[in-house]
Design brief:
Blueprint lengths: L32 E6 L3 H4 L9 H35 L2 E7 L43 E5 L10 H8 L3 E7 L1 H14 L3 E10 L3 H11 L5 E3 L1 H4 L5
Parallel strand pairs: 1-2, 1-4, 2-3, 4-5, 5-6
Helix pairs in contact: 4-5
Length: 234
């Protein structure tokens, strides 16, 4: 494997790991490996007509444009490619999504009830709560529905992974600094080996995205691109 493909070993290093030796190549195992797609849902991809917005609305629209561009040109194509490879090779694929069981959201966790951007009401059957058609689950691929940031805390995902014999989890989705990070930390605490696909994730800004990857890299997971991951897949 070329050194350019192994650039992930030196990328996203925090001060904690500036002088650490390069990590070993991951040894991914058929039957113990799963892809987890986190919170890529219609609500986060829809956009209003900019012509209908007032000045404040247009400012917010413009602020979120880089995120939507990254999702369209980078993240969604990467996730689609990962899904194609995992399906072709017969690896397990799971999805997590944010959705509440009640119409008024009274079953949500506190973090999803507090005022602000995270205070979204996403009843489980509404269009906004669904996974976009381009990456929709197929066959009996598992979807874990949560009202928390961590997909392990709010569901029986840990038990399902255990029952499936999974010990290695490849993570992608949104938002890097929120539900992706929370899920990765929970997986690591449960002794799963985790890889985060950098170009399969996005945060509200590139700075938040990169900062969070630097925080979680090497402590809770390894971070690499989709191209870097592919040669390691069994």
């Amino acid at each position: 494997m070329s050194e350019s493909v192994k650039a992930w070993k030196r990328a996203f290093r925090s001060l904690y790991y500036q002088d650490a030796p390069e990590p070993a190549d991951p040894k991914l195992e058929r039957g113990r490996l799963a892809l987890l797609v986190i919170d890529v849902q219609n609500v986060y991809l829809k956009r209003p007509d900019p012509q209908s917005l007032d000045a404040a609305g247009r400012a917010a629209y413009d602020a979120w444009t880089p995120f939507h561009e990254r999702m369209r040109t980078t993240v969604m194509p990467t996730i689609e490619r990962l899904l194609e490879r995992f399906r072709r090779d017969g690896h397990e694929i799971l999805f997590a999504r944010i959705a509440c069981q009640t119409r008024d959201g009274r079953d949500r966790s506190l973090s999803q009830k507090l005022p602000g951007w995270n205070n979204l009401l996403l009843p489980k059957d509404d269009w906004e709560s669904q996974i976009p058609a381009a990456i929709a689950p197929q066959g009996d691929e598992i979807v874990a529905t949560k009202s928390t940031d961590s997909a392990l805390t709010g569901t029986n995902l840990r038990l399902m992974l255990h029952n499936l014999g999974i010990s290695q989890v490849i993570c992608c989705g949104i938002f890097t600094d929120q539900c992706v990070s929370s899920t990765v930390r929970s997986l690591a605490d449960e002794s799963f080996a985790v890889i985060v696909v950098e170009d399969g994730c996005a945060a509200a800004s590139e700075r938040l995205h990169r900062n969070e990857l630097e925080i979680i890299n090497r402590i809770y997971c390894h971070v690499m691109s989709g191209d870097e991951l592919m040669p390691y897949l069994p």
